[in-house]
Amino acid sequence: MQKLAIQGGYRLNGEVKISGAKNAALPIMCASLLTADELHLANLPDMHDVKTMVKLLQQMGVRIEADTFNAAQVDKLEAPYDMVKTMRAAILVLGPLLTRFGEARVSLPGGCAIGSRPVDLHIKGLLAMGADIHIEHGYIHATARRLHGAQICFDLVSVTGTENLMMAAVLAEGVTVLENAAREPEVVDLANCLIAMGAKIAGAGSDKITIEGVDKLHGARYSVMPDRIESGTFLVAAAATGGHITLTGSRANTLDNVLEKLRTAGAMINVQDDRINLSMDGRPRAVNVRTAPYPAFPTDMQAQFMALNAIADGRAIVVETIFENRFMHVQELQRLGAQIEIEGNTAVIQGCQSLQGATVMATDLRASASLVIAGMVAQGETIVDRIYHLDRGYEHIEAKLSALGAKIRRIN
Ligand code: UD1
């Protein structure tokens, strides 16, 4: 199993190019199932989850060459357990398969390190659109002659739930209205790709999305948006190490809340077009964080801010409202000397002057990122074990950090 060895105490300095967004790339790749024509995708990030999605689509019969996807001959309408358990986003094939082919068999995701994460809202929405759904042998088996439009109000804001139903609705008969829809920029990116393919969608980015079904979609060219979580992760890493970095190819208007929190922590931030410049002098100030659906503070940045707060001046309160079990990184940060107490979904962090290097274990994708950040500010060497989590969702992270001056290497 691969690990990262990090020598702490080096500031990040320089320029780093932001990759395409994982959480936009995965649904957009699934959108290729909606047409028999070619979908050309640019800016797909080179990371494990994208490779898993390529494998899954190929198993179904989608021909994929370089960045071109062609689902003219799909013959297996199934996402097997092996794939869904390693990557929950595989659930995103459900809507497209069902609406175009009238059938889909998708494994239930099962347990997950950051909480139970059910898919009931996806199922409820498809039922309202006329699908016939049975859960059998751990699989969701859905059939429909043709889905029809429906008025669907989500009980909870769900990102992939919104995306799945939006993809199902583009080929359904009539109009679908999604209320209490997710407003995440990745939902908008998917909608823009679908519109480029001929879909009729209005309101993406608001909590009410209206989709008028069409008979057919066509091919398109589309470039995936920059990753706001990768952007945020590098900015926090720079702030924690007292560095000066510039992100290129990023999109500041998808990061408003994160940039505001970094400014509260004492960072100087300047934005010019697709460049975000961060300078941090001295120790960060503690900053309170409460996760909530977009445009509020993203749960996918919570762990990284926990690492920042661990070495900040003062006491911070971090409240996680999206996932019930997303404090797995806390125990590991404590092994590095962080002073954190947890009460339910609230963590209280008393910042300390420095952390000490130790061996820690990554438990999920963003938890891994927080341990890497903590390792970069800890005294001595930190070994981060189980970095396959990190490889799932960050493109060439140690190469990018090394180029910025971090002392980090991969060991077997
Ligand atoms: C997506 C992101 C993930 C991010 C999360 C929240 C992708 C591929 N993943 O995950 O990185 O952390 O949004 O911003 O885009 N829920 C239900 N029933 C459902 C669906 C969701 O109860 O049918 C609950 C979940 O357990 C969770 C909350 O709703 O508590 C939000 O989850 P959701 O937005 O669906 O997360 P994902 O789309 O899986």
Low-confidence stretches: none
Structural class: alpha/beta
**What fraction of the residues are assigned to beta strands by DSSP?**
25-35%
How would the global form be characterised?
Answer: elongated
Mean residue pLDDT: 96
The largest sheet has its strands arranged as: 23-25-1-26
Distance between the termini: 6 Å
Work out the number of β strands: 26
Helix content: 25-40%
How many helices in DSSP terms? 14
Bound heterogens, unique: uridine-diphosphate-N-acetylglucosamine
| Biggest sheet character | 4 strands, mixed
Rounded radius of gyration (Å)? 21 Å
Characterize the structure shown:
With 412 residues, the protein is of the alpha/beta class. The chain is built from 14 helices and 26 strands. The strands form seven sheets. Strands 23-25-1-26 form a four-stranded mixed beta sheet, with helices on one face. A hairpin with a 5-residue loop joins strand 12 and strand 13. The protein is elongated, with a radius of gyration of 21 Å. The relative contact order is 0.15. The structure holds uridine-diphosphate-N-acetylglucosamine. Residues 23, 26, 88-89, 115, 117-122, 156, 158-161, 186, 299-300, 322-323 line the site of uridine-diphosphate-N-acetylglucosamine. Uridine-diphosphate-N-acetylglucosamine binds at residues 23, 26, 88-89, 115, 117-122, 156, 158-161, 186, 299-300, 322-323.
Structure at a glance:
Helix content is 33%, strand content 26%. The protein has 412 residues and is α/β, with parallel strands linked by helices.
